[in-house]
Design a protein that fits this description.
This is Tripartite tricarboxylate transporter TctA. By secondary structure, the protein is mostly helical. About 75% of the residues lie in helices and about 0% in strands. The chain has one domain. It is globular, with a radius of gyration of 22 Å. The N and C termini lie far apart (about 60 Å).
Length: about 500
């Protein structure tokens, strides 16, 4: 009952004209960038961070969430029409969706993706509404050692799940942790790794790092690549709507996809890729039309798209209740919260209920907006695919530079933007994941603060870190998450040599 009351209060915030406007801007931007290959919601939020730093926090966070949801919707359009997922989470959708488009059924493929996203997003947001208060109650009982162990779990799982190599993920994390040490040490008052540069005393700005790594790095990387093959755009032929048979074959995959996406997205090592491929494999196994898989089966679009959007709502569970980002976009949203001096976690629900519940309520509104906008405007989204890449990325570079200068008018900030841009390019070039760097910079100082608090309370006794059942359990989970990828890789190599 309390959740309903909180949600009703959130709706009163979400239906205010400015909140509705921010939500509309967010879903339009999110869909547009989701459609454009290579430009995901994380990059968009990174670009907007310096621009929105003087705006209303509630409206800006609602807009960022709208971009996240819209990006998940938009990624399916390119996956279906040009077989190029705008987001990695749309890879499973491309398997059957593009084959449907080639067979002249691009309209029903886009329709089942849109309706499935709406169904999954709505159910998952309800899950967020009822699950979040319980997690907050648990998190309130955490001591400093428990929070430190939780941060360790976040570090390990984020590093292990982003990218193909756990070692590269951990390397990226350590770069972020190192950058997090720059500035004045709160306890001793001494400057660390600032090399006498006054602008570095206040720590490295998350926005500068994010814009450099995501926007500038991506633009440099795209410019460095040659065209391997020309992307063929499939025209949307025939009706955009679904037949009675399409509806009959889609509704169960929508529900099953939601059941995969929300709980896995809510895990610290979640993400959207795992539930989308699990959903695809499940639909392939359960289908009554196995002959259509590999030729354009509508279940292979409906299930993964539902899982994709449900995982987006699931990702907000650990972000809002514990302050843990489990995706690149969630990391950027965490940076957005910190830009306004807000720290997601149990205290945020008590200190800023208008913001938290307004954000959750706005997700319902964003889902309705996306359903209404997506299908009628599919022609507009297709036209976006024809924007020449040089124009697109030149515009991103200009926008990134101007936004950073507007937020922090300093030559040092501009030099750092360039350095981080080159770092982002090199990391993409050598296949190092970028999100762990941002997570390391944001959560590193928090983890250090909690560790030092725990050690101060115990008079320097490190045993305090494993005395609490919660911290001991979390550290064991972190150890398993750290070792598991190496064990699985070793077993795979052993089986390969045996064969």
């Amino acid at each position: 009952m309390e959740a309903f009351m909180s949600l009703a209060h959130g709706l009163s915030v979400a239906i205010q004209p400015m909140s509705l406007l921010f939500a509309l801007i967010g879903v339009l931007l999110g869909t547009a960038v989701g459609v454009l290959p290579g430009i995901g919601p994380a990059l968009t939020v990174a670009l907007l961070l310096p621009v929105t730093f003087k705006l209303d926090p509630t409206g800006s966070i609602i807009m960022f969430a709208g971009i996240y949801y819209g990006g998940m919707y938009g990624g399916s359009t390119t996956a279906i029409l040009i077989n190029t997922p705008g987001e990695s989470a749309s890879m499973a959708t491309a398997l059957e969706g593009n084959l449907m488009a080639k067979a002249g059924r691009g309209g029903p493929a886009l329709a089942t993706a849109a309706v499935g996203s709406f169904v999954a997003g709505t159910i998952a947001t309800l899950g967020l509404t009822f699950l979040a208060p319980y997690l907050v109650d648990i998190a309130v009982s955490f001591g400093p050692e428990d929070y430190f162990a939780l941060m360790v779990v976040a570090f390990v799982t984020v590093s292990a799940t982003f990218g193909d190599s756990p070692v590269r993920g951990l390397t990226s994390l350590f770069i972020g942790l190192l950058l997090g040490l720059v500035g004045i040490d709160i306890l001793s008052g001494q400057s660390r790794l600032s090399f006498g540069v006054p602008e570095l005393y206040d720590n490295i700005e998350v926005t500068t790092l994010a814009v450099g790594l995501f926007a500038v790095g991506e633009a440099l990387y795209v410019a460095s690549r040659r065209h391997v093959h020309e992307e063929k755009l499939e025209a949307v032929r025939g009706s955009l709507w679904m037949t009675k048979e399409d509806w009959k074959r889609s509704w169960k995959p929508w529900l099953r996809g939601t059941a995969f996406g929300f709980p896995i997205g809510a895990l610290p090592a979640g993400g959207a890729e795992i539930p989308t491929f699990l959903s695809y494999a499940t639909e392939k196994r359960l289908t009554k039309h196995p002959e259509e898989f590999g030729r354009g089966a509508i279940e292979g679009v409906a299930g993964p798209e539902a899982a994709n959007n449900a995982s987006a709502a699931g990702t907000l569970v650990p972000l809002l209740t514990l302050g843990l980002p489990t995706s690149a976009t969630a990391a950027m949203m965490l940076a957005g919260f910190q830009q306004y001096g807000l720290n997601p976690g149990p205290l945020l629900f008590a200190e800023k209920p208008d913001l938290v519940w307004g954000l959750i309520a706005s997700l319902f509104i964003a889902n309705i907006m996306l359903l209404v906008l997506n299908l009628p405007l599919v022609g507009l989204w297709v036209r976006l695919l024809k924007i020449p890449q040089p124009w697109l990325y030149a515009g991103i570079l200009v926008f990134a530079t101007m936004g950073t200068i507007a937020a922090n008018p300093s030559p040092v900030e501009l030099v750092m933007l360039t350095v981080f841009g080159v770092l982002g390019f090199l990391m993409r070039r050598f296949d190092f994941p970028i999100a762990p760097v941002v997570v390391g910079l944001i959560l590193g100082p928090v983890a250090e603060s909690q560790l030092r608090r725990a050690l101060s309370i115990s008079l320097g006794d490190p045993v305090v870190l494993v005395q609490s059942p919660i911290s001991a359990t979390l550290l064991v989970i972190a150890l398993i998450a750290l070792v598991a990828p190496f064990v699985l890789k070793g077993l795979g190599q052993f089986k390969a040599t045996e064969d």
